[in-house]
């Protein structure tokens, strides 16, 4: 039996189920402390495996396209937070101040890796450049996101007193990532051959963080603090944010003279935010009682960006096929086209 097209992907369904379980059966007391320890180990394992997976050769392959990477970098770490700040009056009409902090946190995150590359490939964009931009965004995000949180979130009502020390950030995020990069020479091949292991750790750690975070939030009265109307407003706020960033990346790439393949790469790498990095980072940067509310905008934005970008990727692919049928393939793109 074919899967209904209206159903979200399996991981999104697992996220929804995890939130539901945490709402009904939150972990308390000593069990809650055990889950906090497990979550810390899971996050460290996640960033270790991401470090071991990240190929330096893949990053260097597209690193020379500096204008494209600069635009993606600015879109991810400058324009996104700026839009979030400028639209504060509008967003506060739609959502609660606490959800707005979560929306600001979303704006500081790095871009996705897997989905940005996958959508670029489907749309027949510049895949090597997408690999470089997405991987670089994920790497630099470890340093830049905590800095942006301190500059952007704290000055606009964020829970500054509850931020964890920089030592915990280094211990849980940076140190495991660097260790994975150092050991890639010996374990990189095994990681590449067993991608299912990374997928299990990736998704498992996110589900564990979500369960632990929402358990603490539910115990603290999460669903009593957020009215149903605010959830509808949050969906609208996420749609506005995504629409503006898709518009910015599209027209800025055209204004700066990028070709169609590069434009596609800029759109998919510069308008997306990483759930895989965001949820573990939120768990490290914020106290347990606030994490559930902080990651709620990210979870909603993640699903929205997947659905919208899937539609865009198919449209771009059709358009690219028509262009190639009309003018023929470009010789210098032959290697990329065959790779797809």
Automatic annotation (TrEMBL):
It holds the Pfam family SBF_like. The chain crosses the membrane at residues 7-25, 31-49, 70-87, 99-119, 131-154, 166-183, 204-223, 229-251, 281-301. It comes from the Bacteria. The keyword Transmembrane helix applies. Keywords: Membrane, Transmembrane, Transmembrane helix. InterPro entries: Na+/solute_symporter_sf, Put_Na-Bile_cotransptr. GO terms for cellular component: plasma membrane. This is Bile acid:sodium symporter. It comes from Pandoraea thiooxydans. The lineage of its organism: Bacteria, Pseudomonadati, Pseudomonadota, Betaproteobacteria, Burkholderiales.
């Amino acid at each position: 039996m074919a899967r209904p097209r209206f159903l979200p992907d399996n991981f999104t369904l697992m996220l929804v189920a995890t939130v539901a379980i945490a709402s009904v059966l939150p972990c308390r007391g000593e069990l809650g402390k055990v889950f906090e320890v497990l979550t810390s180990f899971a996050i460290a394992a996640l960033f270790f495996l991401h470090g071991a997976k990240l190929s330096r050769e893949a990053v260097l392959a597209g690193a020379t396209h500096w204008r494209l990477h600069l635009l993606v970098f600015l879109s991810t770490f400058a324009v996104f937070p700026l839009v979030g700040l400028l639209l504060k009056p509008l967003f506060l009409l739609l959502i609660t101040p606490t959800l707005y902090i979560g929306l600001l946190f979303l704006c500081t995150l790095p871009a996705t890796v897997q989905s940005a590359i996958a959508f670029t490939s489907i749309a027949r964009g510049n895949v090597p450049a997408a690999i470089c931009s997405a991987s670089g965004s994920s790497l630099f995000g470890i340093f830049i996101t905590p800095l942006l949180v301190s500059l952007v979130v704290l000055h606009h009502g964020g829970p500054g007193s509850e931020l964890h020390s920089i030592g915990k950030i280094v211990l849980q995020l940076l140190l495991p990532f660097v260790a994975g990069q150092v050991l890639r020479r010996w374990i990189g091949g095994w990681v590449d051959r067993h991608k299912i292991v990374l997928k299990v750790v990736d998704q498992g750690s996110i589900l564990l963080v979500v369960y632990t975070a929402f358990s603490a939030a539910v115990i603290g009265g999460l669903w009593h603090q957020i009215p149903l109307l605010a959830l509808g407003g949050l969906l609208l706020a996420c749609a506005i944010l995504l629409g503006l960033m898709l518009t910015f990346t599209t027209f800025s790439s055209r204004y700066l003279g990028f070709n169609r393949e590069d434009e596609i790469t800029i759109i998919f790498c510069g308008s997306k935010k990483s759930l895989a990095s965001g949820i573990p980072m939120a768990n490290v940067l914020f106290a347990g009682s606030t994490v559930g509310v902080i990651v709620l905008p990210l979870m909603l934005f993640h699903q929205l960006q997947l659905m919208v970008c899937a539609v865009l990727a198919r449209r771009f692919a059709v358009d690219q096929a028509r262009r190639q049928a009309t003018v023929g393939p470009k010789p210098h793109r032959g290697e990329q086209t065959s790779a797809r």
